[in-house]
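Hi W., the adenosine-5'-diphosphate complex you wanted:
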Amino acid sequence: MTTFAETAVARPPAQEEMLHSFLLAAAATTPDSPAVAQFVANDTVQTVSYHQLEELTRGYALALDSLGLDMGDRVILESDTSAHAIAMLLACSTLGLPFVPVSPETPDQRLHKIIETTGASLHVQAEGGKRESIPEATGTGRFGAGKLTVDRLPHPRTRRRRELCATDTAYMIFTSGTTGRPKGVVMSHRAVTSFYRGMLSQGIVGPQDKVATTSPLQFDFSLLDIGLALGSGAAVVPVPRKLMRWPTRFLRVLADTGATQVNGVPSIWRQSLKHLPDAVAALKDVRGVLFCGEDFPLPELRRLQQLLPHARLINCYGATESMACSFTDVPRPLPNGLEKLSIGYAHPGAEMLLVDESGHLIEEEEVPGEIHLRTPALFTGYWDDPKASAAARVPDPAEPRSGQLVLKTGDLAFRGPHGELYFCGRVDSQVQIRGNRVELGEVERRLLEHPEVAEATVLLLERAGVEPVLAAAVVARAGADSLGDGRLTAFCGQALQSYMVPDEIHFLAELPVTENGKVDRRSLAFRFAEGG
Ligand code: ADP
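Structure:
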């Protein structure tokens, strides 16, 4: 075991298009302001200033640099959001090492696929992390208290790169993929800092704010929160993952840390609104709530607005491929007959276009089309997947001859009277489960990997008054005897994130088909609708 102390490092000067210099800018102007306020054991709040965050980053960068990795080498960063995890990702950014955040809850098989796909040089996890069995070809280490302890050195590398460019990869986020392997969204320093600039121009938070972040580090929503807070000179307040499950404790963290802004998917509020409305109303410091990832059910949103009458509620829309793209204020009060929230307009510096099936722009009201996003925050491509990249990064429909590429989002929307957009579904089989993106095809593939499964179809079931659930219809092979008693569910859980594991598995003798021979999803949905 080798513990690396300081070694010399010389790198190009910071540039404002680099993720690390962007996020650490406040270290020069307000070094003593809190950058991270952490809720730690015995319920105390520990503060890390911008100066301290910069020092931590420097320490981790020196330690990483001594490992001899080349710019562009991938580092898997396994952690919950914390001051140290933020410092570690900033250190990777400083050295031009793309980081791939993963959650400690990621199943081994999925992590191994990510390591194999990315050819990661190094896996680092936060001290206390329980991950073992990292493939031999990848170095391993643990970080905490400003030190990186390396358990297995990465393979020696030849350094070929010298100058970090704004177009270099800052990070890669893995989302659900239709092909059965996770899909790596590659983002450059320029893309992410452009997005941050667009977001910050909306004046969502100021330097006095404390931004509670609830999304696991492996989703770019957490990087959005970090950018929103640090880019504004404010503090990030990571809400510990384990406490999120308990509404009492979740609200307690918000109250005890004095969080002024709370970001997360709509479902983080569900239990609290239902069971602890008084405790929600008691969150007097909260002046902003930003939600993202899926529609916020309007009755719940109305309730939240009533309980937090002074808070600005923001509907953030977008996808990992540009981090996000719009920030729309929820009207106050929500009009009584309102049926749908608007996703508004793209942030300054970007534009959402609506395109019909034949590739023409739609200008009229109420006509649905697919959102195409023209933005400097466009992702670089999907890792090692030129076909999928070309399908998502397409010529600008407004002027295809220009060579400009835009993001074909797969999201459908229509325009309102002022040109604002309303999200109205997907063109494919991607769904959102508690704000998490899931490709039904990826879940189906996992089910079919089981040797005793002959056929499988997965669908999203929306039942009145409850959260949508993932349901699988499975036809077992003759003589199958190891699928029941939750065993097929456990098999899925070995390779899929927990939110991708079907909540219900229905065993059928055969799958119903439509007249043209496709699996009849509608009849399945109807059959399962009542839980039967
Ligand atoms: P995010 O982290 O922004 O949810 P994902 O890449 O995980 O990004 O999922 C993106 C998809 O989530 C979008 O393409 C869209 O279908 C859905 N989505 C994101 N934000 C919203 C929103 N505010 N309202 C409705 N659907 C949304």
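The domain at 430-529 is CATH 3.30.300.30 (GMP Synthetase; Chain A, domain 3).

W.
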